[in-house]
């Protein structure tokens, strides 16, 4: 193996005006590095990203290609990078979301991805930084054109024995937690109950859809055997009667429909119960690792078959020493912070050198991916170059490092890398679902159609308020005598009872 810059030297790497012209910040100690007062030449920007040709929104996707957009690429909160999410579009019209980490919805909106294109979400594991934006996707999708069920895939429960089981301090703790996809989905549905009910004064289901936009259908994948997936939905018809064309009885296959096959295999991350995914379509394939330590499951997935995968999306983390130094403000990391960073890496992640090694093994087997993309990485000029040095010490094939809004078009003849050009003030994505605008009547609606009684028909915007609240609303005519709310009074209001303990007001609503 060739030598490369040391981890200590990695902290001294500076940015440059263009790719390929990075230089060493020589002669300075680690303790002298301070992000608030960087040395000359150190730039916290991403020259690699800026060097890419632009991708313009609205570009159609060819019928024979895949388009992969990175909507979140960081393991930690950063203004320039959201947490992990990858959006895959296929030329047959299908689209899939892989992970939904914190902040990624901002990039989906910036990329003008409609809610109806985000109804199939594959989760590699149930960490908050890979699932937290599910709440927004779920909560507001039905207010847009996501008026059909949300489908989730994810791993089965961990079967890690709870060390607090039988403890006198925690007598109610179970021996094993129900910490798999189905229990996640059940509690997720109920966690969002107040939101989903409160937003159901408008239509949340297309008439021809198989269920409501607030229905959840979860598929739990057995991370240990790959066999016998479990299914659950809050909608009994969805769970028991609706025929899902994507169900597969083949082990290690999560989804199969319309010429698309999505396989899964174990990942090694933090706790039992993480998976990686492999999507196959039109003679092409991509692998998304999710978070994982380097493992032979990945090597097998990369080297099986006659050819290598077209696109490998694999996590990679900066060296523990660098992570610890950045976490302590750029100074010399304490022994405790360094030990913690090393423990996290040992527990959960793939270092730069390890990813290089995995790729070198694929090269030995003559199964190198056409392009490898490292993600889950704090990408900027000061981290990218030392990462490339580490990767290149093992691997000479095509590789790049992702950041948010990178877009890859993959066909059999080429892989096109670009950067999306988006607005900082993007509007709500358009309605594109072909079933629009035929929506069911709202769950909370007023049946009276007389516009003199209900100018909002079929909506009943006040149907969920008790008089205790509405009798204390300042009348619209007080603040806008010519406005719609004043000139079109809502007389169809049928208030629910006041909650227990709240005295009904005597004044009738006018």
Explain this structure.
Helix content is 23%, strand content 18%. The strands form three sheets. It has a ten-stranded mixed sheet. The protein has a seven-stranded mixed sheet with strand order 11-12-13-14-15-16-17. Strands 1-2 form a two-stranded antiparallel sheet. The model is unreliable at 1-36, 38-42 and 506-510 (pLDDT under 50). The chain folds into two domains: 7-421, Ribonuclease Z/Hydroxyacylglutathione hydrolase-like (Metallo-beta-lactamase, Chain A); 444-510, no CATH class. It is globular and about 75 Å long. The chain has 16 helices and 19 strands. It has 510 residues and is of the alpha/beta class.
Summarize the SSE layout with pairings.
Elements: H1 7-10, E1 13-14, E2 23-24, H2 47-50, E3 53-56, E4 66-72, E5 85-90, E6 95-98, H3 104-110, E7 120-122, H4 128-131, H5 134-140, E8 150-155, H6 181-191, H7 193-198, E9 216-221, E10 230-233, H8 236-240, E11 253-257, E12 260-266, E13 275-281, E14 284-288, H9 296-303, E15 311-315, H10 320-327, H11 335-348, H12 352-364, E16 371-375, H13 381-392, E17 399-401, E18 406-410, E19 415-421, H14 467-470, H15 476-479, H16 484-487
Helix pairs in contact: 10-11, 12-13
């Amino acid at each position: 193996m060739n030598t490369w810059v040391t981890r200590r030297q990695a902290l001294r790497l500076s940015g440059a005006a263009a790719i390929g012209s990075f230089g060493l910040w020589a002669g300075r100690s680690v303790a002298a590095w301070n992000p608030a007062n960087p040395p000359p030449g150190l730039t916290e920007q991403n020259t690699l990203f800026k060097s890419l040709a632009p991708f313009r929104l609205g570009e159609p996707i060819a019928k024979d290609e895949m388009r992969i957009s990175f909507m979140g690429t960081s393991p930690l909160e950063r203004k320039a990078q959201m947490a992990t999410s990858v959006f895959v579009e296929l030329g047959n019209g299908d689209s899939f979301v892989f992970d939904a980490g914190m902040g990624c919805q901002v990039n989906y909106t910036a990329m003008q991805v409609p809610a109806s294109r985000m109804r199939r979400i594959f989760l590699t594991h149930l960490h908050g930084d890979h699932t937290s934006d599910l709440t927004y996707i779920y909560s507001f999708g039905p207010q847009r054109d996501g008026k059909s069920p949300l489908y989730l895939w994810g791993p089965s429960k961990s079967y890690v024995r709870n060390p607090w089981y039988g403890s006198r301090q925690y007598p109610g703790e179970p021996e094993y937690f129900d910490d798999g996809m189905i229990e996640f989905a059940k509690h997720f549905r109920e966690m969002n109950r107040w939101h989903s009910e409160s937003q159901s004064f408008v239509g949340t289901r297309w008439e021809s859809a198989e269920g409501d936009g607030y229905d959840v259908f979860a598929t739990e994948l057995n991370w240990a055997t790959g066999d016998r997936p479990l299914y659950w939905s809050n909608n009994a018809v969805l769970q028991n009667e609706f025929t899902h064309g994507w169900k597969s009885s083949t082990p290690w296959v999560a989804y199969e429909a319309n010429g698309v096959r999505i396989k899964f295999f174990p990942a090694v991350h933090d706790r039992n119960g993480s998976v990686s995914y492999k999507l196959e379509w039109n003679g092409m394939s991509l692998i998304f690792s999710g978070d994982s330590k380097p493992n032979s499951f990945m090597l097998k997935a990369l080297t099986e078959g006659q050819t290598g995968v077209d696109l490998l999306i694999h996590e990679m983390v900066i060296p523990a020493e660098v992570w610890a130094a950045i976490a302590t403000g750029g100074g010399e990391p304490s022994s405790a912070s360094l030990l913690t960073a090393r423990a996290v890496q040992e527990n959960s992640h793939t270092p730069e050198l390890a990813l290089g090694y995995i790729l070198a093994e694929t090269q030995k087997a003559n199964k190198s991916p056409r392009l490898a993309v490292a993600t889950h990485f704090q990408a900027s000029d000061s981290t990218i170059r030392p990462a490339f040095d580490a990767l290149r010490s093992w691997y000479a094939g095509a590789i790049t490092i992702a950041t948010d809004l990178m877009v890859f078009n993959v066909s059999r003849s080429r892989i096109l890398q670009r950067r999306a050009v988006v607005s900082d003030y993007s509007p709500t994505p358009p309605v594109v679902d072909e079933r629009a605008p035929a929506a069911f009547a709202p769950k909370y609606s007023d049946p009276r159609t007389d516009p003199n009684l209900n100018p909002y028909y079929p909506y009943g915007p006040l149907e969920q308020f008790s008089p205790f609240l509405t009798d204390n609303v300042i009348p619209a005519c007080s603040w806008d005598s010519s406005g719609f709310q004043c000139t079109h009074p809502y007389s169809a209001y049928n208030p629910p009872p006041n909650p227990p303990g709240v005295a009904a007001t005597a004044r009738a609503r006018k």
